[in-house]
Design brief:
- The protein has 198 residues and is mostly helical.
- It has two domains: 2-125, Rossmann fold; 133-193, Winged helix-like DNA-binding domain superfamily/Winged helix DNA-binding domain (Arc Repressor Mutant, subunit A, Orthogonal Bundle).
- It is 54% helix and 6% strand.
- The protein has ten helices and three strands.
- The protein has a three-stranded parallel beta sheet, sandwiched between helices.
- Strand 1, helix 3 (50-60) and strand 2 form a beta-alpha-beta unit.
- Helix 1 packs across helix 5 and helix 7 crosses helix 9 (165-178).
Length: 198
Amino acid sequence: MRQGLKRILADEFSRAVFGEAGTAQEAIAQIWENPWDVVVLDITMPGRSGLEVLAEIRKSNPRLPVLVLSMHPEDQFAMRVLKSGASGYMTKESAPEALVGAVKKVLAGGRYVSPALAEQMASHLGTDHQKAPHERLSDREFLVLRLIASGKTVSQIADELTLSVKTISTYRARILEKMVMQSNAELTHYALQNRLVE
């Protein structure tokens, strides 16, 4: 996947220097060590999530444009990543020329959203839009919700996020409270219904 992206971008930006990372930790190290003009970031990565990498970038280098390229549909993540400071969001199904256009737009200081997402955002402006329960969650809580809904136990989630079981249990309790639910089964049903997990 990364090689394909690099080829698409290298055709358009022939003098560009590219770096790549396979994990969140590698991505953060690359960003700290090199003066990049733009970051193309995935949300689903081994170790910490792309949302956490985005938060790190916003803290350490707030002016660095970040284009999130994800397998997740726009309605799941786009608004969350844009609110978290990303310069754009696009799905991996997007055409190669859309990727080139998106990179050019964020390099020029703009923000990129697909025409469908722009229309969705505009329609939300015109209505008294009630927040969906999962939109009340912090990024970390949202990540824990998705892991619970994918069938992982509290201890598996703690291992994956390198946090204590007690901390994950606290996140779980907060998620249940904010979403007004009683059990993991309810959370899982909600997440599947709202396509928050595959």
